[in-house]
């Protein structure tokens, strides 16, 4: 919220509790016009938080500010386990392994509908526009595929770097597949755990040393995601580095690696026929039926994106009925 206010925009903080007790924080940039204005809900990707949307600063650089200048009522979501959504009604994220037993499936089932409903309630609207990036698109696709009523609340889904299948992933991240079962065994024995949280000391060190690590950071991001820093604003590099990563759970990363291994957009695989049967009524984890989605969808795919690969998104486009 400080970044938003520093840029000269009003910012409201709204909390909502999911049915399973996670307390999520949303940042709202309300319309300065009194009349009801279009509501735009924006959902960040994996290992990020709401700050990623405004990290470029004002002056036509950040989409939330552009939308706010147009009179839109902008809401920035934060899923469980990210920097601004670490609270829970009974669990402590800093000490409870149970808190971290979740993946993007739980976000799609609990977090997304809770935040969207909150935004609609506060703004007195019946539907909104959804803008998602990476994991933010994945959880939206999953919810829309499973919940017919949710489709009525989404006027249109704008999917930036859409992720639904990772069959053609070219990033070295795909090597995480080899850690699937050992990591799952460890999680089963010792419990859930947090991965890459945003810590104050790491933020300070990163910000202070940004000039020295810029080159190494560029190489690392290119290695993992195919990101090229020439596509970013150089003057905002300290902001980028001091606000990432945003943290998530080990189980969430494992769920992504399951998608790499299967080449499908599927629910969490318990690696047990019995547990899958108990959870889903079948011995294997079910695949999401994307053809069920009725809301209009717009896909924005980068030709150099090693995570949301163009080939995978071509497959996605053939499954969507209202593209």
From TrEMBL:
<dbReference type="InterPro" id="IPR006693">
    <property type="entry name" value="AB_hydrolase_lipase"/>
</dbReference>
<keyword id="KW-0442">Lipid degradation</keyword>
<dbReference type="GO" id="GO:0016042">
    <property type="term" value="P:lipid catabolic process"/>
</dbReference>
<keyword id="KW-0443">Lipid metabolism</keyword>
<protein>
    <recommendedName>
        <fullName>Partial AB-hydrolase lipase domain-containing protein</fullName>
    </recommendedName>
</protein>
<feature type="domain" description="Partial AB-hydrolase lipase">
    <location>
        <begin position="2"/>
        <end position="57"/>
    </location>
</feature>
<dbReference type="InterPro" id="IPR029058">
    <property type="entry name" value="AB_hydrolase_fold"/>
</dbReference>
<dbReference type="GO" id="GO:0016787">
    <property type="term" value="F:hydrolase activity"/>
</dbReference>
<keyword id="KW-0325">Glycoprotein</keyword>
<dbReference type="Pfam" id="PF04083">
    <property type="entry name" value="Abhydro_lipase"/>
</dbReference>
<keyword id="KW-0378">Hydrolase</keyword>
<comment type="similarity">
    <text>Belongs to the AB hydrolase superfamily. Lipase family.</text>
</comment>
<keyword id="KW-0732">Signal</keyword>
């Amino acid at each position: 919220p400080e970044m938003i206010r520093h840029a000269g925009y009003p910012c409201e903080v709204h909390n909502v509790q999911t049915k399973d007790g996670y307390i999520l924080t949303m940042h709202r940039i309300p319309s300065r016009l009194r009349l009801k204005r279009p509501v735009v809900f924006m959902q960040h990707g994996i290992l990020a938080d709401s700050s990623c949307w405004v990290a470029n600063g004002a002056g036509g650089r950040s989409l939330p500010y552009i939308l706010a200048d147009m009179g839109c009522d902008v809401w920035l979501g934060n899923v469980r386990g990210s920097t601004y959504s670490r609270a829970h009604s009974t669990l402590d994220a800093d000490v409870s392994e149970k808190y971290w037993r979740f993946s993007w499936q739980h976000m799609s089932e609990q977090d997304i509908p809770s935040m969207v409903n909150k935004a609609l309630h506060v703004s007195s609207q019946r539907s909104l526009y959804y803008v998602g990036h990476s994991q933010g698109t994945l959880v939206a696709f999953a919810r829309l595929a499973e919940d017919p009523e949710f489709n009525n609340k989404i006027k249109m889904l704008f999917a930036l770097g859409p992720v639904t299948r990772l069959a053609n992933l070219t990033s070295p991240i795909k090597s995480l597949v080899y850690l699937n079962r050992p990591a799952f065994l460890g999680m089963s024995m010792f419990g859930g755990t947090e991965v890459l949280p945003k810590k104050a000391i790491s933020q300070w060190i990163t910000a202070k040393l940004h000039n020295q690590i810029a080159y190494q950071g560029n190489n690392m991001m290119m290695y993992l995601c195919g990101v090229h820093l020439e596509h970013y604003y150089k003057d905002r590099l300290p902001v980028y580095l001091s606000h990432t990563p945003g943290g998530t759970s080990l189980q969430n990363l494992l769920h992504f690696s399951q998608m790499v291994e299967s080449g499908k957009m599927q629910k969490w695989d318990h690696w047990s026929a019995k547990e899958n049967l108990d959870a889903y009524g079948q011995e294997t984890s079910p695949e999401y039926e994307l053809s069920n989605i009725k809301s209009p969808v717009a896909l924005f795919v980068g030709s150099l994106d090693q995570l949301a690969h163009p080939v995978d998104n071509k497959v996605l486009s053939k499954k969507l009925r209202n593209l």
